[in-house]
Design goal:
single chain, 108 residues, mainly beta, four-stranded mixed sheet, four-stranded antiparallel sheet, 1 helix, globular
Length: 108
């Protein structure tokens, strides 16, 4: 049981932090072999979604939607996966909306 819990918390994850006073309707990511979506992003909030190892190289694209449904930011980041699922354990993708509504998207 402990190994299953440890695996969950070491799985790759996306951390979304909204440091602004704005609300957003959604943030969608397309990963090399799956998709991750956040909905109803409240001001000054932090959310985390864990995802399965991608097991491949690729590009991650994202789209951030305003409360009215308009795309307000989009972009991409290279993702370095590996055929071994253990190689991706502990990876974190950090998506931050700062106080000035500027976006930073990084991976460790």
């Amino acid at each position: 049981m402990m190994s299953a819990i440890a695996y969950h918390f070491l799985s790759p994850k996306v951390v979304l932090e909204n440091r602004s006073d704005k609300r957003y309707s959604a943030l969608n990511f397309s990963l090399p072999s799956s998709k991750v979506s956040f909905s109803s992003i409240t001001p000054r909030s932090r959310q985390t979604i864990y995802f399965s190892p991608q097991k491949q190289l690729g590009v991650i694209t994202y789209r951030l939607y305003s409360d009215s449904g308009d795309v307000v930011a989009q972009g991409q980041l290279s993702y370095i996966g590996d055929e071994s699922p253990l190689a991706e354990l502990g990876n974190t993708l950090s998506f931050i909306i700062n106080e000035n509504y500027e976006i930073s998207f990084t991976t460790d």
